[in-house]
């Protein structure tokens, strides 16, 4: 895994050079953004809503019994913004779009399409990786912000249905608990997670050698590795911003 991480860093540097030289086409970034984030928006919203609803069911009655129902909105919003929205949405995008990136590049590798690109004197890493990494790092935060909002609204609806908590008290609690720092960290997490998913999955697909069986193996490994690296990055970001 350490060797693979070093390879990912090398590929990321190659992508930066490719972008700085002005070789990246904006049209490809838009196309990849639609494939990675826009197509993942429905499942991300469903996950965010259901997650917030489950949290609301779990905490609402307990908070009501202790007279702390005024804190339900803040608790749900804090959990959504800090962890659920960036983490769960990134996992969903990794499972849907990340595996597709890995499979697509792996298929290009085993069918010699990558070699054809090299004969045209085009950097295959920059050509295949850069638009995906850039579009994921820009658009995944947008999906996360929308999902976080939907999750907070879902928590409000379920809290009202479960214990009759008035929306005004719920919203007031949200504004009392959420800080600008939490939103900034949420966006930073989403940006890093998006770039990690695209980079790890593309790198794993680019490493593929063999045939159709190896394409499937690389896709599975890409999903596992992107999840592991994302969770490690999540831990380090929380350590940096909420402990130190």
What can you tell me about this protein's structure?
There is one protein chain. The chain is mainly alpha-helical and 244 residues long. It has one domain (26-55, 72-155, 179-242). Helices cover 87% and strands 0% of the residues. It has helices at residues 2-20, 26-38, 41-65, 72-110, 113-119, 124-163, 167-177, 180-206, 212-242. The chain is elongated. The two termini are 27 Å apart.
Shape: elongated
The number of helices is 9
Strand content: under 5%
What is the share of helical residues? over 70%
Describe the protein's topology.
Elements: H1 2-20, H2 26-38, H3 41-65, H4 72-110, H5 113-119, H6 124-163, H7 167-177, H8 180-206, H9 212-242
Helix pairs in contact: 1-6, 2-6, 3-4, 3-6, 4-6, 4-7, 4-8, 4-9, 6-8, 8-9
Question: Can you summarize this structure?
Answer:
With 244 residues, the chain is an all-alpha fold. 87% of the residues lie in helices and 0% in strands.
Keywords:
elongated; mainly alpha; 244 residues
């Amino acid at each position: 895994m350490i060797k693979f991480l070093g390879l990912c860093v090398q590929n990321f540097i190659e992508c930066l050079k490719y972008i700085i030289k002005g070789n990246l086409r904006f049209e490809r970034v838009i196309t990849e953004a639609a494939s990675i984030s826009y197509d993942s928006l429905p499942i991300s919203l469903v996950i965010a809503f259901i997650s917030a609803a489950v949290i609301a069911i779990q905490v609402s009655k307990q908070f009501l019994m202790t007279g702390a129902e005024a804190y339900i909105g803040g608790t749900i919003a804090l959990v959504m913004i800090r962890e659920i929205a960036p983490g769960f949405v990134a996992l969903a995008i990794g499972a849907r779009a990340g595996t597709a990136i890995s499979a697509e590049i792996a298929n290009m590798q085993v069918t010699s399409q990558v070699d054809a690109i090299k004969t045209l004197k085009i950097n295959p890493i920059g050509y295949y990786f850069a638009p995906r990494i850039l579009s994921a790092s820009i658009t995944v935060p947008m999906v996360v912000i929308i999902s976080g909002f939907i999750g907070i609204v879902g928590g409000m609806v379920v809290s009202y249905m479960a214990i009759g908590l008035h929306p005004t008290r719920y919203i007031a609690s949200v504004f009392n608990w959420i800080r600008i720092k939490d939103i900034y960290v949420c966006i930073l997490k989403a940006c890093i997670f998006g770039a990690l998913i695209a980079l790890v999955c593309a790198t794993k697909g680019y490493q593929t050698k063999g045939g159709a069986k190896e394409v499937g193996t690389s896709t599975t490994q890409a999903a596992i590795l992107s999840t592991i690296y994302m969770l490690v990055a999540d831990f380090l970001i929380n350590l940096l911003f909420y402990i130190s």
